[in-house]
Specification:
Length: 448
Protein backbone atom coordinates (compact mmCIF):
# COMPACT_ATOMS: atom_id res chain seq x y z
CA UNK A 1 0.00 0.00 0.00
CA UNK A 2 1.15 3.52 -0.74
CA UNK A 3 0.00 6.82 0.68
CA UNK A 4 1.15 10.41 0.42
CA UNK A 5 0.71 13.51 2.53
CA UNK A 6 1.46 16.93 1.13
CA UNK A 7 1.89 19.52 3.87
CA UNK A 8 2.13 23.21 3.04
CA UNK A 9 2.75 24.72 6.43
CA UNK A 10 1.60 28.23 5.52
CA UNK A 11 -1.92 26.79 5.34
CA UNK A 12 -1.76 24.52 8.39
CA UNK A 13 0.27 26.31 11.06
CA UNK A 14 -2.39 26.12 13.77
CA UNK A 15 -4.77 23.57 12.30
CA UNK A 16 -3.94 19.85 12.10
CA UNK A 17 -3.75 18.58 8.54
CA UNK A 18 -5.81 15.43 8.25
CA UNK A 19 -5.64 12.69 5.66
CA UNK A 20 -7.22 9.27 6.20
CA UNK A 21 -5.48 6.03 5.29
CA UNK A 22 -7.32 2.74 5.16
CA UNK A 23 -6.96 2.46 8.96
CA UNK A 24 -7.17 6.19 9.67
CA UNK A 25 -4.29 8.63 9.99
CA UNK A 26 -4.01 12.12 11.44
CA UNK A 27 -0.83 14.07 10.82
CA UNK A 28 -0.08 17.24 12.79
CA UNK A 29 2.53 19.74 11.59
CA UNK A 30 2.21 22.77 13.83
CA UNK A 31 5.51 24.67 13.87
CA UNK A 32 5.42 28.26 12.53
CA UNK A 33 9.05 27.86 11.34
CA UNK A 34 7.69 25.67 8.53
CA UNK A 35 5.97 28.51 6.68
CA UNK A 36 8.54 28.52 3.84
CA UNK A 37 8.77 24.73 3.48
CA UNK A 38 6.70 21.85 2.15
CA UNK A 39 7.09 18.32 3.48
CA UNK A 40 5.90 15.21 1.65
CA UNK A 41 5.39 11.92 3.47
CA UNK A 42 5.35 8.68 1.46
CA UNK A 43 4.64 5.43 3.27
CA UNK A 44 4.72 1.82 2.15
CA UNK A 45 4.38 -1.15 4.45
CA UNK A 46 4.59 -4.90 4.53
CA UNK A 47 3.24 -6.68 7.62
CA UNK A 48 4.52 -4.81 10.69
CA UNK A 49 7.41 -3.02 9.00
CA UNK A 50 6.78 0.49 7.70
CA UNK A 51 9.09 2.17 5.15
CA UNK A 52 8.68 5.93 5.22
CA UNK A 53 10.23 8.66 3.04
CA UNK A 54 10.07 12.25 4.27
CA UNK A 55 10.91 14.81 1.58
CA UNK A 56 11.46 18.51 2.13
CA UNK A 57 11.08 21.19 -0.55
CA UNK A 58 11.14 24.99 -0.43
CA UNK A 59 7.78 26.63 -0.93
CA UNK A 60 8.94 28.08 -4.27
CA UNK A 61 10.42 24.77 -5.50
CA UNK A 62 9.18 25.51 -9.03
CA UNK A 63 12.09 27.94 -9.40
CA UNK A 64 14.99 26.06 -10.98
CA UNK A 65 17.92 28.10 -9.63
CA UNK A 66 17.34 27.48 -5.92
CA UNK A 67 20.23 26.56 -3.61
CA UNK A 68 18.76 25.55 -0.27
CA UNK A 69 19.25 23.58 2.94
CA UNK A 70 17.04 22.85 5.93
CA UNK A 71 18.22 21.23 9.15
CA UNK A 72 15.22 19.79 11.00
CA UNK A 73 14.38 17.60 13.95
CA UNK A 74 11.49 15.24 13.18
CA UNK A 75 9.42 13.36 15.74
CA UNK A 76 7.12 10.74 14.20
CA UNK A 77 4.62 8.92 16.45
CA UNK A 78 1.89 6.41 15.70
CA UNK A 79 -0.61 5.99 18.52
CA UNK A 80 -3.64 3.78 19.13
CA UNK A 81 -6.09 3.30 21.97
CA UNK A 82 -3.48 1.27 23.85
CA UNK A 83 -0.71 3.91 23.53
CA UNK A 84 2.26 4.49 21.24
CA UNK A 85 2.62 1.63 18.76
CA UNK A 86 5.71 2.90 16.93
CA UNK A 87 7.89 5.99 16.78
CA UNK A 88 10.96 7.54 15.18
CA UNK A 89 12.98 10.61 16.15
CA UNK A 90 15.76 11.94 13.96
CA UNK A 91 17.60 15.07 12.88
CA UNK A 92 18.43 15.48 9.21
CA UNK A 93 19.91 18.07 6.86
CA UNK A 94 17.58 18.31 3.88
CA UNK A 95 19.09 20.06 0.85
CA UNK A 96 19.49 20.12 -2.92
CA UNK A 97 21.88 17.21 -2.39
CA UNK A 98 19.62 15.19 -0.12
CA UNK A 99 15.94 16.28 -0.04
CA UNK A 100 14.59 12.93 1.28
CA UNK A 101 15.13 11.03 4.53
CA UNK A 102 14.32 7.29 4.58
CA UNK A 103 13.39 5.59 7.85
CA UNK A 104 11.66 2.44 9.06
CA UNK A 105 9.24 1.88 11.94
CA UNK A 106 7.45 -1.23 13.21
CA UNK A 107 3.70 -1.26 13.75
CA UNK A 108 2.47 -3.17 16.78
CA UNK A 109 -1.01 -3.72 18.13
CA UNK A 110 -4.24 -5.44 17.15
CA UNK A 111 -4.80 -5.86 13.42
CA UNK A 112 -7.66 -3.78 12.04
CA UNK A 113 -7.60 -1.17 14.82
CA UNK A 114 -7.48 2.52 13.94
CA UNK A 115 -4.22 4.30 14.62
CA UNK A 116 -3.18 7.92 14.53
CA UNK A 117 0.09 9.23 13.11
CA UNK A 118 1.46 12.47 14.47
CA UNK A 119 4.55 14.22 13.21
CA UNK A 120 6.30 17.24 14.63
CA UNK A 121 8.90 19.04 12.52
CA UNK A 122 11.14 21.56 14.24
CA UNK A 123 13.33 23.64 11.91
CA UNK A 124 16.78 24.12 13.46
CA UNK A 125 18.44 26.09 10.70
CA UNK A 126 17.54 26.81 7.09
CA UNK A 127 18.52 28.88 4.09
CA UNK A 128 17.09 29.27 0.61
CA UNK A 129 18.76 31.32 -2.10
CA UNK A 130 17.29 32.05 -5.49
CA UNK A 131 20.37 32.40 -7.68
CA UNK A 132 18.23 34.00 -10.40
CA UNK A 133 18.08 37.04 -8.11
CA UNK A 134 21.02 39.44 -8.76
CA UNK A 135 20.96 40.39 -5.05
CA UNK A 136 21.18 36.81 -3.68
CA UNK A 137 23.29 36.26 -0.50
CA UNK A 138 26.20 34.58 -2.33
CA UNK A 139 27.13 37.90 -3.94
CA UNK A 140 29.03 40.56 -1.99
CA UNK A 141 27.99 43.47 -4.19
CA UNK A 142 27.28 44.57 -7.78
CA UNK A 143 30.96 44.35 -8.72
CA UNK A 144 31.04 40.71 -7.54
CA UNK A 145 27.99 39.56 -9.53
CA UNK A 146 28.46 37.59 -12.73
CA UNK A 147 25.62 36.12 -14.79
CA UNK A 148 25.68 32.54 -16.11
CA UNK A 149 23.31 30.41 -18.13
CA UNK A 150 23.27 26.72 -17.30
CA UNK A 151 20.82 24.39 -19.02
CA UNK A 152 18.87 27.46 -20.15
CA UNK A 153 18.56 28.86 -16.61
CA UNK A 154 20.07 32.25 -15.76
CA UNK A 155 21.77 32.74 -12.39
CA UNK A 156 23.94 35.34 -10.69
CA UNK A 157 27.06 33.99 -8.98
CA UNK A 158 30.01 35.32 -6.99
CA UNK A 159 32.91 36.12 -9.32
CA UNK A 160 35.36 36.20 -6.38
CA UNK A 161 34.48 32.73 -5.13
CA UNK A 162 34.50 31.11 -8.58
CA UNK A 163 37.77 32.85 -9.43
CA UNK A 164 39.38 31.65 -6.20
CA UNK A 165 38.22 28.04 -6.52
CA UNK A 166 38.79 27.49 -10.24
CA UNK A 167 41.61 28.53 -12.61
CA UNK A 168 39.17 27.87 -15.48
CA UNK A 169 36.75 30.50 -14.19
CA UNK A 170 39.72 32.80 -13.50
CA UNK A 171 40.74 32.57 -17.17
CA UNK A 172 37.12 32.92 -18.27
CA UNK A 173 36.72 36.20 -16.38
CA UNK A 174 40.10 37.49 -17.53
CA UNK A 175 39.33 36.78 -21.19
CA UNK A 176 35.69 37.89 -21.05
CA UNK A 177 34.33 34.76 -22.74
CA UNK A 178 30.69 35.87 -22.60
CA UNK A 179 27.98 35.13 -25.14
CA UNK A 180 28.25 38.82 -25.87
CA UNK A 181 30.13 41.58 -24.11
CA UNK A 182 27.21 42.83 -22.00
CA UNK A 183 25.24 39.68 -21.38
CA UNK A 184 26.21 36.37 -19.73
CA UNK A 185 28.51 33.36 -19.69
CA UNK A 186 27.07 30.16 -21.12
CA UNK A 187 28.14 26.80 -19.68
CA UNK A 188 27.37 24.13 -22.25
CA UNK A 189 27.10 20.40 -21.51
CA UNK A 190 26.58 21.13 -17.80
CA UNK A 191 23.68 19.58 -15.88
CA UNK A 192 21.82 22.17 -13.77
CA UNK A 193 21.22 19.91 -10.75
CA UNK A 194 24.85 18.83 -10.70
CA UNK A 195 26.04 22.44 -11.04
CA UNK A 196 23.89 23.51 -8.07
CA UNK A 197 25.57 20.75 -6.04
CA UNK A 198 28.93 22.00 -7.29
CA UNK A 199 28.07 25.54 -6.07
CA UNK A 200 26.88 24.18 -2.71
CA UNK A 201 30.32 22.62 -2.20
CA UNK A 202 32.48 25.59 -3.18
CA UNK A 203 30.39 27.86 -0.92
CA UNK A 204 30.62 25.29 1.95
CA UNK A 205 26.83 25.05 2.18
CA UNK A 206 26.79 21.27 1.84
CA UNK A 207 29.96 19.21 1.38
CA UNK A 208 28.28 15.82 0.99
CA UNK A 209 28.86 13.71 -2.14
CA UNK A 210 26.88 10.51 -2.76
CA UNK A 211 27.10 7.67 -5.23
CA UNK A 212 24.29 9.11 -7.36
CA UNK A 213 26.15 12.32 -8.18
CA UNK A 214 29.81 11.45 -7.65
CA UNK A 215 30.53 11.00 -11.37
CA UNK A 216 28.78 14.26 -12.24
CA UNK A 217 30.73 16.17 -9.59
CA UNK A 218 34.04 14.59 -10.63
CA UNK A 219 33.30 15.70 -14.19
CA UNK A 220 32.57 19.28 -13.05
CA UNK A 221 35.55 19.33 -10.68
CA UNK A 222 37.83 18.21 -13.50
CA UNK A 223 36.30 20.49 -16.12
CA UNK A 224 36.70 23.57 -13.91
CA UNK A 225 39.90 22.28 -12.21
CA UNK A 226 38.32 22.69 -8.76
CA UNK A 227 40.45 20.75 -6.27
CA UNK A 228 37.89 20.92 -3.46
CA UNK A 229 35.21 19.18 -5.52
CA UNK A 230 37.67 16.62 -6.89
CA UNK A 231 38.94 15.71 -3.41
CA UNK A 232 35.45 15.30 -1.98
CA UNK A 233 34.52 13.16 -4.97
CA UNK A 234 37.63 11.05 -4.45
CA UNK A 235 36.81 10.59 -0.76
CA UNK A 236 33.34 9.39 -1.76
CA UNK A 237 34.87 6.79 -4.11
CA UNK A 238 37.21 5.59 -1.36
CA UNK A 239 34.26 4.99 0.98
CA UNK A 240 31.87 3.37 -1.50
CA UNK A 241 31.51 -0.39 -0.90
CA UNK A 242 32.02 -2.87 -3.73
CA UNK A 243 28.26 -3.48 -4.10
CA UNK A 244 27.69 0.24 -4.84
CA UNK A 245 30.54 0.58 -7.33
CA UNK A 246 32.95 -2.02 -8.66
CA UNK A 247 36.71 -1.62 -8.24
CA UNK A 248 37.08 -1.57 -12.01
CA UNK A 249 34.68 1.39 -12.28
CA UNK A 250 36.50 3.20 -9.47
CA UNK A 251 39.85 2.68 -11.17
CA UNK A 252 38.45 3.91 -14.49
CA UNK A 253 37.24 7.12 -12.82
CA UNK A 254 40.50 7.49 -10.89
CA UNK A 255 42.51 7.15 -14.08
CA UNK A 256 40.23 9.54 -16.01
CA UNK A 257 40.37 12.28 -13.36
CA UNK A 258 43.91 11.55 -12.04
CA UNK A 259 42.79 10.67 -8.49
CA UNK A 260 46.09 9.64 -6.89
CA UNK A 261 44.77 8.38 -3.53
CA UNK A 262 42.19 6.16 -5.23
CA UNK A 263 44.88 4.65 -7.46
CA UNK A 264 47.29 4.22 -4.53
CA UNK A 265 44.67 2.46 -2.40
CA UNK A 266 43.79 0.10 -5.24
CA UNK A 267 47.41 -0.88 -5.75
CA UNK A 268 49.40 -0.35 -2.56
CA UNK A 269 47.04 0.90 0.13
CA UNK A 270 46.33 4.48 1.16
CA UNK A 271 49.29 6.87 1.22
CA UNK A 272 49.46 10.57 2.03
CA UNK A 273 52.77 11.15 0.28
CA UNK A 274 51.21 13.27 -2.52
CA UNK A 275 49.46 15.55 0.00
CA UNK A 276 52.57 15.88 2.16
CA UNK A 277 54.61 16.96 -0.86
CA UNK A 278 51.94 19.47 -1.84
CA UNK A 279 51.76 20.91 1.69
CA UNK A 280 55.51 21.51 1.54
CA UNK A 281 54.85 23.83 -1.40
CA UNK A 282 53.36 26.36 0.99
CA UNK A 283 56.85 26.97 2.38
CA UNK A 284 58.06 28.07 -1.08
CA UNK A 285 57.60 31.74 -2.03
CA UNK A 286 56.95 30.79 -5.66
CA UNK A 287 54.62 27.83 -5.16
CA UNK A 288 52.04 27.08 -7.85
CA UNK A 289 49.07 27.68 -5.53
CA UNK A 290 49.70 31.44 -5.69
CA UNK A 291 48.13 33.32 -8.57
CA UNK A 292 50.94 35.81 -9.13
CA UNK A 293 52.96 38.41 -7.23
CA UNK A 294 49.83 40.38 -6.29
CA UNK A 295 48.27 37.27 -4.77
CA UNK A 296 51.08 36.22 -2.43
CA UNK A 297 50.79 36.76 1.33
CA UNK A 298 53.89 36.06 3.41
CA UNK A 299 53.04 34.63 6.83
CA UNK A 300 55.28 33.81 9.74
CA UNK A 301 53.64 31.26 12.04
CA UNK A 302 55.54 29.76 14.96
CA UNK A 303 58.82 30.91 13.40
CA UNK A 304 58.02 29.22 10.07
CA UNK A 305 57.65 31.21 6.84
CA UNK A 306 54.66 30.32 4.64
CA UNK A 307 53.52 31.79 1.31
CA UNK A 308 49.78 31.65 0.75
CA UNK A 309 47.16 32.83 -1.71
CA UNK A 310 45.36 35.96 -0.56
CA UNK A 311 42.54 35.24 -2.99
CA UNK A 312 41.82 31.77 -1.59
CA UNK A 313 42.23 32.74 2.08
CA UNK A 314 40.06 35.85 1.62
CA UNK A 315 37.21 33.86 0.02
CA UNK A 316 37.06 31.36 2.88
CA UNK A 317 37.64 33.71 5.80
CA UNK A 318 36.22 37.22 6.37
CA UNK A 319 39.03 37.85 8.88
CA UNK A 320 41.73 37.15 6.30
CA UNK A 321 39.81 39.27 3.80
CA UNK A 322 39.79 42.17 6.26
CA UNK A 323 43.47 41.58 6.99
CA UNK A 324 44.39 41.76 3.32
CA UNK A 325 42.36 44.92 2.78
CA UNK A 326 44.37 46.36 5.68
CA UNK A 327 41.41 46.82 8.01
CA UNK A 328 43.63 45.36 10.76
CA UNK A 329 47.03 45.97 9.18
CA UNK A 330 48.72 49.34 9.02
CA UNK A 331 51.85 48.14 7.25
CA UNK A 332 52.25 48.53 3.52
CA UNK A 333 54.03 45.24 2.83
CA UNK A 334 52.21 41.89 2.59
CA UNK A 335 53.84 40.33 5.65
CA UNK A 336 51.74 38.96 8.49
CA UNK A 337 52.87 37.35 11.72
CA UNK A 338 50.44 35.10 13.58
CA UNK A 339 51.45 34.68 17.18
CA UNK A 340 50.44 31.90 19.59
CA UNK A 341 49.56 29.53 16.71
CA UNK A 342 51.38 26.26 16.16
CA UNK A 343 52.91 26.11 12.67
CA UNK A 344 51.94 22.43 12.10
CA UNK A 345 48.32 23.13 13.07
CA UNK A 346 48.19 26.16 10.79
CA UNK A 347 49.72 24.17 7.93
CA UNK A 348 46.92 21.60 8.23
CA UNK A 349 44.39 24.43 8.42
CA UNK A 350 45.58 26.09 5.20
CA UNK A 351 45.89 22.62 3.66
CA UNK A 352 42.11 22.27 4.09
CA UNK A 353 41.44 25.74 2.68
CA UNK A 354 43.69 25.11 -0.34
CA UNK A 355 42.04 21.68 -0.86
CA UNK A 356 45.36 19.87 -0.50
CA UNK A 357 44.29 17.47 2.24
CA UNK A 358 40.66 17.48 3.42
CA UNK A 359 41.13 14.82 6.10
CA UNK A 360 40.34 15.46 9.77
CA UNK A 361 41.40 13.03 12.51
CA UNK A 362 41.32 12.76 16.30
CA UNK A 363 44.71 14.44 16.68
CA UNK A 364 43.91 17.47 14.51
CA UNK A 365 40.19 17.91 15.28
CA UNK A 366 40.20 20.39 18.17
CA UNK A 367 43.06 22.49 16.80
CA UNK A 368 41.30 22.76 13.43
CA UNK A 369 38.03 23.67 15.16
CA UNK A 370 39.81 26.42 17.09
CA UNK A 371 41.43 27.83 13.95
CA UNK A 372 38.22 27.53 11.94
CA UNK A 373 36.30 29.36 14.65
CA UNK A 374 39.00 32.01 15.13
CA UNK A 375 39.18 32.83 11.42
CA UNK A 376 35.44 32.26 10.82
CA UNK A 377 36.16 29.67 8.13
CA UNK A 378 32.95 27.81 7.31
CA UNK A 379 34.69 25.17 5.17
CA UNK A 380 36.97 24.03 8.01
CA UNK A 381 34.17 24.10 10.59
CA UNK A 382 31.90 22.06 8.28
CA UNK A 383 34.59 19.41 7.66
CA UNK A 384 35.19 19.12 11.42
CA UNK A 385 31.46 18.94 12.11
CA UNK A 386 31.03 16.15 9.56
CA UNK A 387 33.87 14.23 11.22
CA UNK A 388 32.33 14.64 14.68
CA UNK A 389 29.00 13.30 13.43
CA UNK A 390 30.70 10.08 12.30
CA UNK A 391 32.27 9.44 15.72
CA UNK A 392 30.62 6.73 17.82
CA UNK A 393 29.94 6.98 21.56
CA UNK A 394 33.00 4.75 22.12
CA UNK A 395 35.18 7.23 20.22
CA UNK A 396 33.75 10.32 21.93
CA UNK A 397 31.12 10.42 24.68
CA UNK A 398 28.06 12.69 24.52
CA UNK A 399 29.37 15.02 27.24
CA UNK A 400 32.49 15.93 25.26
CA UNK A 401 30.50 16.34 22.06
CA UNK A 402 28.18 18.78 23.79
CA UNK A 403 31.11 20.79 25.16
CA UNK A 404 32.66 21.01 21.68
CA UNK A 405 29.33 21.71 19.98
CA UNK A 406 28.57 24.43 22.52
CA UNK A 407 32.00 26.06 22.18
CA UNK A 408 31.90 26.21 18.36
CA UNK A 409 28.10 26.50 17.83
CA UNK A 410 27.74 23.19 15.94
CA UNK A 411 23.98 22.55 15.90
CA UNK A 412 24.01 19.09 14.34
CA UNK A 413 26.63 17.86 16.81
CA UNK A 414 24.65 19.23 19.76
CA UNK A 415 21.41 17.59 18.62
CA UNK A 416 23.10 14.25 17.99
CA UNK A 417 24.78 14.29 21.41
CA UNK A 418 21.58 15.33 23.24
CA UNK A 419 19.52 12.52 21.73
CA UNK A 420 18.44 10.12 24.47
CA UNK A 421 20.02 12.08 27.34
CA UNK A 422 17.59 11.94 30.27
CA UNK A 423 16.63 15.01 32.26
CA UNK A 424 18.44 13.62 35.30
CA UNK A 425 21.71 13.09 33.42
CA UNK A 426 21.37 16.52 31.83
CA UNK A 427 20.80 18.21 35.20
CA UNK A 428 23.93 16.59 36.68
CA UNK A 429 25.96 17.49 33.58
CA UNK A 430 24.91 21.15 33.42
CA UNK A 431 25.70 21.60 37.13
CA UNK A 432 29.30 20.57 36.42
CA UNK A 433 29.70 22.22 33.02
CA UNK A 434 29.04 25.85 32.18
CA UNK A 435 27.05 25.97 28.93
CA UNK A 436 25.76 28.83 26.82
CA UNK A 437 22.15 29.96 27.01
CA UNK A 438 21.77 28.85 23.40
CA UNK A 439 22.70 25.24 24.19
CA UNK A 440 20.49 25.15 27.29
CA UNK A 441 17.55 26.41 25.24
CA UNK A 442 18.31 23.90 22.47
CA UNK A 443 18.10 21.01 24.94
CA UNK A 444 14.71 22.21 26.24
CA UNK A 445 13.49 22.60 22.67
CA UNK A 446 14.77 19.12 21.83
CA UNK A 447 12.83 17.63 24.77
CA UNK A 448 9.49 19.11 23.65
Amino acid sequence: MFGQHQVQATQFINTPFQHLYDRGTILDWDRPQLRNRKFYLDERHLSEERFIDLTCQPKNADKRALLWSCSAKVTFLRTACDGVVDQAIFEHLFSNNDPTYHFTTHLKGNKGNYYYSRGLIDIIQSSCMDLADPDNPLIEGPEDAVCFKVDGVGMYLSKKMLDAQSPVFHTMFADGLKENAKDFYVLKEVDLEGFLRFLGIIHSINLSVDKKFVENLLYLGDRFQCKLVLQLGEECLLKLPEEDMSLAKKLALANLYKLNCMLLEATHGVSKIPQIQELKQLLDSENKLIGGSDDVAHFKVGGVDMYLSKKILGCHSPLFKALFTRCFNEKAEDFYELKDINSNDFLRFVGLIHSIDLSVDDDSLENLLQLGYTFKCRLVLRLCEDYLLTMTVEEMDWQKKIVIGDRYKLNSVLLQAMEGVSRKKWRIFREKQQLSEYTLALYLRQRL
